[in-house]
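USER: Please consider what follows.
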Amino acid sequence: MSEAATFHGQARARRGWSLRFYIMEVCLIALILALFLLAPGFGSSANLLNVFRSVSMLGIIAFGMTAVIISGEIDLSVGSGVALAGCFAAWAVELLTPVTGDVAAVLLGALGAVAIGMACGLFTGTLRAQFNVPSFITTLGLFTALRGAANLLTDGFPLASFPGWFGFFGNGSVYGIPFPVFVFVAVFAGMHFLMSHTAFGRAVYAVGGNAEAARLSGIWVGGVKTMTFVITGALTAISGLLIASQIGSGTGSTAAGLELDVIAAVIIGGTDLFGGRGRITGTLIGVLFLGFIGNGMTLMNVSDYWQYVVRGGLIVGALLLNQVLERR
């Protein structure tokens, strides 16, 4: 083969790689431009800040879910985990405030909620590593059990035991930027560094790509997968605390169906549902894409039912697009 033919072949390969790598970025920009033209009030600063606030809770979990899916697993319990985190914190505050005061009660309740989230992740990972129980089955069980536990703690009613200042974390702003956005950005930066620049991140990709090859190369496959669940459990609890702060109570019905939006954001961002491939930056694009399109459809008075249809179509379309570009 001549040098010219080789050069043109490499150039075509680079263009194809670039197209696949940045296709969702292009789609997001096109969506934003369309919404500026079609959705009344979309471009206002108040509306955009509201979108960023609402997607922050979703994105915090989605970054952890990206690691889980890249490792070849899945977690269906995050929505129920959000509800349990908020309910446990509210229950702890009600129980401890007369003894410790509200500041210590909130701190202990928040730490307890995060610990429970991590314990759930450890439970799922341990069953997968030690007994080869599929994470789909384990987290499906937790999906029901955690929701039930949340309602047991609150007797099925919203538990509004938080002090007034706690609402700042979900509703407050710093220099005009919603506080949850700062948490969202910090989690994004931390997960991006973890997955792109550490040995653990490389191990996650290796385990998801070929678990047996990773094991033979000395990687503790079960430990890596367990750690992704633990991280996601902690991030789920943090998101649950922010949502509890936003609504002012712990509620057992909070975040129903959130796990589907989280998984959708990860898939739309280009992460392979079968593991081994994905980007934290891609998930960021997926989260923003879902947030903007949901907000735009609301501003255009699109029925909630049609919004569900569009979201489902986006998931299927993103999977199909990734498969087509992969084959090319």
